[in-house]
Amino acid sequence: MKFLCAIVLLVVAIAFAAAGDLEDELNWQSYKAKFHKRHRSKDEARRKANFIKRQKQIEKHNKENKEWEMGNNLFSDMTDEERKGMLGAKPVPRKERFLNPGYPIEERALPISIDYRSDKCMQPVKQQAECGSCWSFAAVVPLEFNTCKKTGTPVALSEQMLVDCDTYNYACEGGDYTNAWKFIKEKGGIMINSSYPYVSGTTLTRGTCKFSSTSVAARVSTYGWTMPYPNATVSMQYLQSYGPLPSAMKVLDSLYQYKNGVYSDSACIIADENQVDHAVVIVGYGTTTTTPAIPYWIVRNSWGTTWGNLGYMAIKRGVNMCNIESWTAYVEVV
């Protein structure tokens, strides 16, 4: 009798294992189709294993956390090394920040919320691909936005020009958005994207600089860090006065699979403000209608529209989550 029970249990276990394997395979095939993933046969098993591991993390998180949701995206089958290759914030040391501080701004009543995502001057979310050029995308967004506000005409500017030409930064190896503004100011402007399109996601290297003053579409006037920092209210005031604010943040493993909701991670409350590795842009703020209400920043990323909420995320505001309130900066155009 005991032997028979053991046989039955073994059969049931095999059936469940087979069902699990089938479900994993169906999920894997669905993921590849949705995100247009094609792998060499020798890489298929490794990529699938990465995906299955992340799928289990997503399911566990979404069962336990109701403030924000994880989901599959372009990172789901990547190695840790590949994911880290899309980080590239290398901001200037703290002591150097005081050489170019922000100007005092007029204190006035702040609106309950700001959201620049749907503004006609905000360009569509872009994709830096497998290149640590997030700094260039963070530098370009406020230039596009503020130039449009001045001229009334939307404009897309060239991140590739910065990757190829900017001698203050390090192309796909990382950089600082304020150094990018310094370079643009000295160079005489930044070119329009149609004259210098982005290709670094495929080349992974700094190319030959093809700068042409005839295609310049924006020029830098002044720039600086928001002061004092970290201070959420100060950043909100600058956001209202100067438009989108680039910042740098620390990326934990949990962020790669972010999908929706107000992101927070207790491990991302960091004592050392210099622990940052990715450049993003704050484009708004608000507060949830939940109980308790959660204040948040609206953040634009450069990982394409399949990441997060169509390329954007909400992150908890007022606690310097992932150091995002320590590195906000602003820029004005000529």
Automatic annotation (TrEMBL):
Q: List, for all copies, the residue spans of the domain called Cathepsin propeptide inhibitor.
A: 28-83
For the Peptidase C1A papain C-terminal domain, which residue ranges apply? 110-332
Give the record's keywords alphabetically: Disulfide bond, Hydrolase, Protease, Signal, Thiol protease, Zymogen
Q: Which SMART domains match?
A: Inhibitor_I29 (SM00848), Pept_C1 (SM00645)
Leader sequence segment: 1-19
Matching entries from PROSITE patterns are given as: THIOL_PROTEASE_ASN, THIOL_PROTEASE_CYS, THIOL_PROTEASE_HIS
Family listed? Belongs to the peptidase C1 family.
Question: What is this protein's record name?
Answer: Cathepsin-l cysteine peptidase
Source organism per entry reads Daphnia magna
Starting at the broadest rank, the lineage of the source organism is: Eukaryota, Metazoa, Ecdysozoa, Arthropoda, Crustacea
